C-alpha cells in the first residue's frame, strides 16, 4: 500500500481545523502511521518546498509556513497520494469543489490550510524529511472492513 505526507498548515492549526482534517482522512479509511506537532524551521521548509524556490511567492510561502506550529501526518492506504490530493482540492481554494478540504474550509491560495504530497516519489522524500525518526507499524483492526 501507498503512503502520503499530509500537513495541517499554521492557519489550519490556528483556526482549530486539525480535528476536522484528520477526521476526514480517518473516516475515509486511511491509516495514520505517524503524527506530531512541530514548529518548522525555515531551513526545513526550504527543503520541503525546494521545487518552488524560484517562484515569486516563495519568501511569503516560507514566512507563512514558519509562522506557527504545523501538524505532520503520514497516511497509508490504497492510492493514498492521489486520493489525498482529491480530498484536498485544488491549490487555489476558490477553484476547489465543495466537499474538498480547501473547497469547504478556506478562501485563499496563500492560506490554504493543508498540504498533501503530489507524487509517490515526493511522498517518500517528504516522509523522510519530516519523520527522520520513522513511522509506527501496526495493524488496524478494521483493515478487512475497508479493503476486500
Ligand atoms: P501544497 O500541498 O502545500 O504543496 O500545495 P499544492 O501542491 O497544491 O501547490 P504547490 O506545491 O504548487 O504550492 C505550494 C504552496 O505554495 C501552495 O499550497 C500555496 O500555499 C503556495 N502557493 C502556490 N501558488 C501560489 C501563488 O500563486 N500565490 C501564492 N501567494 N501562494 C502560492
Ligand atoms: Mg505541492
Structure in words:
Belongs to the NDK family. This protein has 148 residues and is α+β, with helices and mostly antiparallel strands. It has helices at 10-14, 18-28, 42-48, 58-65, 80-88, 101-105, 120-130, 143-146; strands at 2-8, 31-38, 70-77, 114-116. It has a 4-stranded antiparallel sheet. The two termini are 13 Å apart. Bound molecules: guanosine-5'-triphosphate and magnesium ion. Guanosine-5'-triphosphate is lined by residues 52, 57, 60-61, 91, 109-110, 112, 115-116, 118.
- The secondary structure category is alpha+beta
Helical percentage: 40-55%
- Give the uncertain stretches in residue-range form: none
Number of extended strands: 4
Main sheet specs: 4 strands, antiparallel
The molecules bound to the chains, other than polymers, are:
guanosine-5'-triphosphate, magnesium ion
By DSSP (H or I, 4+ residues per run), the number of helices equals 8
Domain Nucleoside diphosphate kinase-like: 1-137
Keywords: ATP-binding, Kinase, Nucleotide-binding, Transferase
Pfam families: NDK (PF00334)
GO biological process, one term: CTP biosynthetic process
Summarize the structure.
The chain has 148 residues and is of the alpha+beta class. Helices cover 41% and strands 18% of the residues.
Key terms:
148 residues; alpha+beta; 4-stranded antiparallel sheet; 41% helix; 18% strand; binds guanosine-5'-triphosphate; binds magnesium ion; ATP binding; Nucleoside_diP_kinase_AS; ATP-binding
Amino acid at each position: 500500500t501507498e503512503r502520503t505526507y499530509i500537513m495541517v498548515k499554521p492557519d489550519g492549526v490556528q483556526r482549530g481545523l486539525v480535528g476536522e482534517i484528520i477526521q476526514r482522512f480517518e473516516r475515509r479509511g486511511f491509516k495514520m502511521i505517524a503524527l506530531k506537532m512541530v514548529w518548522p524551521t525555515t531551513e526545513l521548509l526550504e527543503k520541503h518546498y525546494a521545487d518552488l524556490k524560484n517562484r515569486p511567492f516563495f519568501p511569503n510561502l516560507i514566512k507563512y509556513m514558519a509562522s506557527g506550529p504545523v501538524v505532520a501526518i503520514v497516511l497509508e492506504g490504497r492510492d493514498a497520494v492521489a486520493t489525498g490530493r482529491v480530498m484536498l482540492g485544488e491549490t487555489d481554494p476558490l477553484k476547489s469543489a465543495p466537499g474538498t478540504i480547501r473547497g469547504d474550509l478556506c478562501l485563499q491560495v496563500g492560506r490554504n490550510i493543508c498540504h498533501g504530497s503530489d507524487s509517490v516519489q515526493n511522498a517518500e522524500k517528504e516522509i523522510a524529511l519530516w519523520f527522520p525518526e520513522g513511522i509506527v507499524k501496526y495493524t488496524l483492526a478494521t483493515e478487512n472492513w475497508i479493503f476486500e
